[in-house]
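Table 4 source record.
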Amino acid sequence: MTETTDTGGPNEIPPAILFDMDGVVLEGRGTDPSVYERAADAAVESLGVEPTDDQLAGLRAHGYDAVEGHCETLGVDPTEFWRLKERFASEISSGRLQSGRRGVYADADVIRSIASETTTALVSNNRHETVEFVADYFRFPFDAVRGRDPTPAGFRRRKPDPAYLLETLDALDVDDGIYVGDRETDVVAAERAGLEAAYLRRPHNRTRPLPEGSTYELHSLEELLGIVGAAHPS
């Protein structure tokens, strides 16, 4: 682990450690695009509309602006379409996890040891329903979990906006700690929320420059054990 800022030494247990999900706990940088494609198709079928090929491509994309424009052309409430798409995406993602098509990183098991020493939470740009499912399905003992709300406004509040981090800190009744992420947006959000940022190296970001503002550079979640003084899981 490379510490890029003096934090007072490894013996000071942080009041909370918050974790990003995709690329940190869950394998892979993010949700497979096919999930959103299938979710959009299911929402189209549910609403009984018949988009053109170009419209369907926009509805399948992972972003709200294109969805809004095409929905208005099709005479569909874009908020309702988005809600359905998010719901179906969560159902499809849960199925992929249950089937083993996507799993957790091997080093994520140390979260259980860390949770025995300090407060922990899972805070992600992914859908809240999926974040809850991951915590429950893999039995992680997080004190709080937070994902994006299934609304256009919720989508716009994703990191680097610190809103979800700040809400989680408020729920935990703490105002200090570490946020572990794998993207520059995680580091920016952590700074804006008053947290130290731990940048975790994974295969998808191995050669990227260390984001400015990172407090820690981690090459495994196991390196967090030195920060909290937790015993390595047997």
